[in-house]
C-alpha cells in the first residue's frame, strides 16, 4: 500500500512541485518507512508553501528527534505549538507541549 501511495503522491508532486498536500502526504508515507531525512525534506517544502495548523510541525519535530537533532526538534515543536494556538487547536497545542516537556526530562 505504501509503495502505491508513494508513487501516486510523487506523480502529484511532479505535476506541481509546489503542491503542499503532496509534500505533506509524502512526509507521512516516508515516516512509515522510517526515512526521516525524506520526512524533513518534504515537511520543509510543505511548510514553505502555506500556514500549517501544527500537525506538520509536530511531525517535523518527531523526525528531527529520530535523527538526533534535539535543537531542531524543539524549534519545530515550539513553532507548532504557536501555530496550533493561533488556529484554535488547544488539544494539539497541549500535545506538542507534552513533547517539549519530555525533552526536559
Describe this structure in words.
This protein has about 100 residues and is an all-alpha fold. About 80% of the residues lie in helices and about 0% in strands. The chain folds into 2 domains: about 1-50, no CATH class; about 50-105, Serine Threonine Protein Phosphatase 5, Tetratricopeptide repeat, CATH 1.25.40. The protein has helices spanning about 1-15, 20-30, 35-50, 55-65, 70-85, 90-105. The protein is globular.
Q: List SSEs in N-to-C order.
A: HHHHHH
CATH architecture of the largest domain: Alpha Horseshoe
Radius of gyration: 14 Å
Q: Helical amount among residues, as a percent range?
A: over 70%
Q: Tally the helices: what do you get?
A: 6
Number of strands: 0
User: Kindly, what is the distance between the CA atoms of the first and last residues, rounded to a whole number of angstroms?
Assistant: 37 Å
Outline: globular
CATH-derived topology of the largest domain? Serine Threonine Protein Phosphatase 5, Tetratricopeptide repeat
Relative strand content: under 5%
Biggest β-sheet, characterized? Answer: none
Low-confidence stretches: none
CATH domain class of the largest domain: Mainly Alpha
The overall number of domains is 2
- Class based on secondary structure composition and strand pairing: mainly alpha
Calculate the mean pLDDT score and round it: 95
InterPro entries: TPR-like_helical_dom_sf (IPR011990)
Amino acid at each position: 500500500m505504501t509503495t502505491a501511495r508513494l508513487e501516486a503522491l510523487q506523480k502529484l508532486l511532479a505535476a506541481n512541485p509546489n503542491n503542499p498536500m503532496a509534500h505533506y502526504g509524502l512526509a507521512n508515507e516516508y515516516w512509515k518507512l522510517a526515512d526521516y531525512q525524506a520526512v524533513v525534506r518534504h515537511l520543509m517544502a510543505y511548510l514553505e508553501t502555506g500556514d500549517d495548523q501544527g500537525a506538520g510541525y509536530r511531525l517535523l519535530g518527531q523526525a528531527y528527534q529520530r535523527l538526533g537533532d534535539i535543537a531542531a526538534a524543539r524549534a519545530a515543536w515550539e513553532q507548532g505549538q504557536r501555530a496550533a494556538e493561533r488556529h484554535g487547536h488547544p488539544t494539539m497545542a497541549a500535545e506538542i507541549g507534552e513533547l517539549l516537556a519530555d525533552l526536559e526530562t
